[in-house]
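Quick one, T. Sequence first:
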Amino acid sequence: MRNGYFLLFVGFFLLSKTRAIAQQKPNIVLIYADDLGYGDISCNGATKIRTPNIDRLAHQGLRFTNAHTSSSTCTPSRYSLLTGEYAWRKTGTGIAPGNAALLIPTDHITLPGVLQKAGYKTGVVGKWHLGLGPKGGPDWNGEIKPGPLEIGFTYSFLLPATGDRVPCVYVENHRIVNLDLKDPIQVSYKEPIGSDPTGKDHPELLKMLFSHGHDQTIINGVSRIGYMSGGKSARWIDEEMADVLTSKVNRFIEDSKSGPFFVYFSTHDIHVPRMPHSRFAGKSEMGPRGDAILQLDWCVGEVMKTLTKLNLVNNTMVIISSDNGPVVDDGYKDDAVEKLNGHKPAGPLRGGKYSAFDAGTRIPFIVYWPGKVKPSTTDALVSQVDLLASLAALTGQRLSQTEAPDSFNTLDTFLGKSKKGRAYVIEHAINNTLSLIKENWKYIEPHQGPALMQEVAVETGNASEPQLYNLKTDLGETRNLARQQPELVAELAALLKAVRKKEGYKPTN
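Structure tokens:
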């Protein structure tokens, strides 16, 4: 009997010790907004709109003023975030159609894979836009794989691509949610399919008119990019999307509370079509784009409520950022331009989504971890591509020279222990133009192409001559100093060329 009690005691002791060791590793919540500009949140200077939940984390955590995504568009920035490799090194990582095959090779090291190896439950909820299924695209009516579960996530609940692209359904793990196989889904990006009306032919059926593109199959009163038929019972309702996604994040946190866990909350807001819930519609006085910012802030607040309720706040690192810079008119007539009312989505920066100028990739970035990250603001130069190597270091893992080849371990910078940032940052624009920032200097390589994307009214940064800007004295990139500084231009161009050639090489910061 005594031996039995002793073994029982030892069992409880080991179980408690195992749980204690697990909880020494922090939970990680990455809230990744869509098209949120540097100037779209009040802690970064916005005065026409308030984001109190985001602001609170910024004021109680570390707010970065010189943080960058790796690309000024969504698919490549997400690829780099999850793989630690610049997307421009791999063909086919431009803005993906809704029926693309999985872009991340299943044998690649990934951010969720690294954390899963460290004992984490890993979840992704929200916009995916990195392709699903094998070469040729997914079988929407069957098992949809490979996908997130094959590259390191233990749970996924997704928009397959974007809110403005078909198919307009949720995919949970390997299956479309609520799909009736008697009404199978068909998707085409080449030609009309099925009998569903299109925005081009039936604008009278639309809740929101399109401004350019976005004139194909109508789903929930909104015409999209691409054609879709079937799947009526599985189609999402845009106005309910933020509630659906946030509830899935909170359920994942509750189910994983024994920890450690990592959840990648890839919000749809503030991407088009901007169709916020009635709780937010009309509340910003800036039209649906402003209302969607309020909704995004609410999502942040709801996640924080769950962490607080479960007593997880002190052992959770919360990171808030965006996949690229802002765009105002991105395909729908939602009064976003007309109702800016003096609001500057990019703040003091030039350009926006798609652009080689800094507003394309300099994004909001906040790290909140009570007791571990002191409240502060930093101008340290950091990149999202470094999250993989940095979180690997946080969880006690070492990467080989060939794994996550473009990701530096800048953990001390992310935690505010060091004011030293990256030696340089590479930025990538819509037309594969590359830029390089080193210290206070920004070099944009020469690139042919239009200087303005007319349909979205965004400067591309394209120019036939090299561009050089001193970001310390000219944050808005208004004075090209390339002709006055030819030696510096040559130095930065040579560095960019060297980085471009180092595929599969682990650089030293």
